[in-house]
Design brief:
The protein has 4 helices and 10 strands, in the order αααββββαββββββ. The chain is an alpha+beta fold. Strands 2-1-3-4-5-8-10-9 form an 8-stranded mixed sheet. The chain has a two-stranded antiparallel sheet with strand order 6-7.
């Protein structure tokens, strides 16, 4: 061991440390990033044409508190940095209709869209349930639903979603939280 250079020992220890802390659990080390990092992360959720002028938010560290605005916007869209309560990187950008749905969902209030609403999650997402909008983590023995990058659609006509599946199968669109006021179509754009 005395013939091994000190820098090599340090490199091996660093590699072991990286392996130990990157065991696949998110524990959201990213959410502790700088404000600049959080803004970039939030902007990565949508095409630049949308995220460039969107208001940017971070999730509050206080449970139940509203998100914290990091930057004002001018186009009506809101982008949110990675949600630290989930196991994957899942920033999102949402239009005003989707914002109204999220507000209703967060207060367990009724919601009915009068026009279509859109959202982007171009980094993908992880959800505790595809059927229960208020579930915050999978039940005993359950697993997170990991979605690929996708576009989301809120329809003002809930009946138009009747023929879409309620689970992510086959790589096609599916309805998240089907049959609830907060249902929306998830349309994967890649695997």
């Amino acid at each position: 061991m005395s013939n091994v250079p000190t820098w090599m020992i340090g490199l091996v220890l660093l590699a072991v440390l990286v392996l130990v802390i990157s065991d696949g659990s998110h524990m959201n080390m990213m959410s502790g990033g700088s404000t600049a990092w959080k803004i970039q992360n939030a902007m990565s959720a949508a095409p630049e044409e949308i995220s460039r002028d969107a208001a940017i938010f971070d999730w509050s560290s206080v449970p139940g508190a509203p998100p914290v605005q990091l930057r004002a916007g001018s186009n009506g869209w809101q982008c949110f940095a990675d949600d630290p309560a989930t196991p994957t990187n899942d920033p999102m950008c949402i239009d005003q209709v989707f914002q109204a749905m999220i507000q209703a969902w967060s207060t367990k209030s009724p919601f009915a869209a009068k026009v279509e609403g859109f959202g982007y999650m171009l980094q993908g997402a992880s959800d505790a349930s595809s059927s229960d909008p208020f579930k915050t983590e999978p039940g005993p023995g359950g697993q997170w639903i990991i979605s690929p990058p996708h576009v989301m659609l809120i329809s003002p006509d809930p009946d138009s979603l009747a023929n879409l599946p309620a689970e992510p199968t086959g790589g096609g669109p599916w309805v998240m939280w089907k049959g609830t006021p907060y249902q929306h179509v998830m349309m994967p754009i890649s695997q």
